[in-house]
């Protein structure tokens, strides 16, 4: 009897020790998989002012609307995606995050997608996500409706002011990080973007107004390719480097269609063309070469290619790459230490884990001087 009692006590002690030492996480090949003990309820306020409660960290994620998926990939959340919009699966040169993560196209479709479509509740529910990230597609009321219909937490994101991105973009990135358990990564991404923004601005900060050449970017895509008349006021690459964008005189923010005659009166010193509409410009040149040859930038052989960054909301990585290239062209002394190609690959590598410049150049011409009519 005494022997049985001792054995019983030893057994009980072993069970108590096993219970007390039970970890809050389990190991599986490829990383740490959170257990129920790790999951916590958390409330956040999203970018349209909604308070949303859900369990964190989220393990299964979807992102809908222009640019939502891009932001999740910046925070290393591509492996958590359980479905993507049909529009993301289509061939789309220059969409950097899809170039970096092509396997995302193999995921189930969660609706058509696109800036003018409504979310597909049935498709979203079918992939059983823990959270739906959404950008641009819905306002506060529609986000509440989507959450009510699906029973899945909906978190609205924002790119902020498209001229400089800024605080709303940074808030969105940090929000994604806290929800998917990548807080440190989100902080690193925000710090990196701010570092590049500050670097660009500081390089030309002391220049007098008279030392800043007039610049114009044409053929900027706007729901499709556009010709020389399509430009952008408060164009981020120019704004970051303090260039004198003649289109800012319109007082607008974003894409603007101008009269071609206005370009003659502006007569910029440097002419940049978005590769997305370059074919339309060359076609127009063949019809009216005198117009282009009258421009100062053409006479001085100062026409340059830029990689399009407006693609289902801005590819922030490419916008910064364009800024460094434009800086090198317009302000060579201030950017003499910069190799635009190496800098571009550094940006793509940091944000998306892959140097993409060569692929961008293959599809969209890359950074180079242009010779219209040749």
Automatic annotation (TrEMBL):
Domain of life according to the entry: Bacteria
Stretches assigned to the Fe/B12 periplasmic-binding domain: 60-334
Q: Which PROSITE patterns match?
A: FE_B12_PBP, PROKAR_LIPOPROTEIN
Which interval of the chain is the signal sequence? 1-19
Q: Which keywords does this Swiss-Prot/TrEMBL entry list? A: Signal
Note one Pfam family from the annotation.
Peripla_BP_2
Tell me if Signal is a UniProt keyword of this record.
yes
Task: Determine if Secreted is one of this entry's keywords.
Answer: no
Which CDD domains does this entry report, sorted A to Z?
A: HemV-2 (cd01147)
The family database entries (InterPro entries) matched by this protein are listed as: ABC_Transporter_SBP, ABC_transptr_periplasmic_BD
Q: Which Gene3D superfamilies match?
A: Nitrogenase molybdenum iron protein domain
Q: Which family does it belong to?
A: Belongs to the bacterial solute-binding protein 8 family.
Protein name according to UniProt: ABC-type Fe3+-hydroxamate transport system, periplasmic component
Q: What is the species of this protein?
A: Desulfosporosinus meridiei (strain ATCC BAA-275 / DSM 13257 / KCTC 12902 / NCIMB 13706 / S10)
């Amino acid at each position: 009897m005494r022997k049985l009692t001792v054995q019983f006590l030893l057994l009980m002690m072993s069970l108590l020790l096993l219970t007390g030492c039970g970890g809050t996480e389990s190991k599986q090949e490829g990383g740490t998989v959170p257990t129920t003990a790790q999951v916590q309820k958390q409330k956040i306020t999203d970018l349209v002012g909604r308070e949303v409660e859900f369990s964190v960290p989220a393990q299964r994620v979807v992102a809908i609307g222009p640019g939502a998926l891009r932001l999740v990939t910046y925070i290393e959340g591509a492996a958590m995606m359980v479905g993507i919009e049909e529009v993301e699966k289509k061939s789309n040169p220059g969409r950097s995050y899809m170039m970096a993560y092509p396997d995302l196209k193999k995921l189930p479709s969660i609706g058509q997608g696109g800036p003018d479509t409504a979310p597909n509740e049935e498709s979203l529910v079918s992939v059983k996500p823990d959270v739906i990230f959404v950008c641009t597609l819905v306002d506060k009321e529609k986000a509440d409706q989507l959450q009510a219909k699906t029973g899945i937490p909906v978190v609205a994101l924002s790119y902020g002011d498209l001229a400089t991105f800024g605080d709303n973009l940074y808030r969105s990135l940090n929000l994604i990080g806290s929800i998917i358990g990548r807080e440190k990564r989100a902080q690193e991404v925000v710090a990196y973007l701010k570092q590049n923004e500050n670097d660009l601005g500081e390089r030309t900060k002391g220049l007098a107004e008279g030392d800043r050449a007039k610049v114009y970017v044409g053929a900027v895509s706007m729901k499709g390719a556009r010709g020389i008349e399509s430009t952008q006021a408060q164009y981020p690459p120019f704004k970051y480097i303090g260039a004198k964008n003649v289109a800012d005189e319109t007082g607008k923010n974003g894409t603007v269609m101008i009269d071609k005659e206005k370009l003659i009166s502006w007569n910029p010193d440097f002419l940049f063309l978005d590769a997305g509409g370059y074919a339309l410009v060359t076609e127009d040149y063949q019809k009216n070469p005198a117009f282009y040859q009258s421009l100062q930038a053409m006479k001085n052989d100062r026409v340059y290619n830029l990689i399009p960054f407006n693609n289902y909301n801005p590819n922030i990585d490419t916008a910064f790459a364009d800024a460094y290239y434009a800086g090198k062209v317009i302000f060579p002394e201030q950017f003499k230490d910069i190799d635009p190609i190496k800098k571009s690959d550094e940006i793509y590598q940091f944000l998306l884990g892959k140097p993409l410049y060569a692929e961008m150049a293959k599809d969209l011409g890359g950074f180079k001087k242009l010779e219209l009519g040749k």
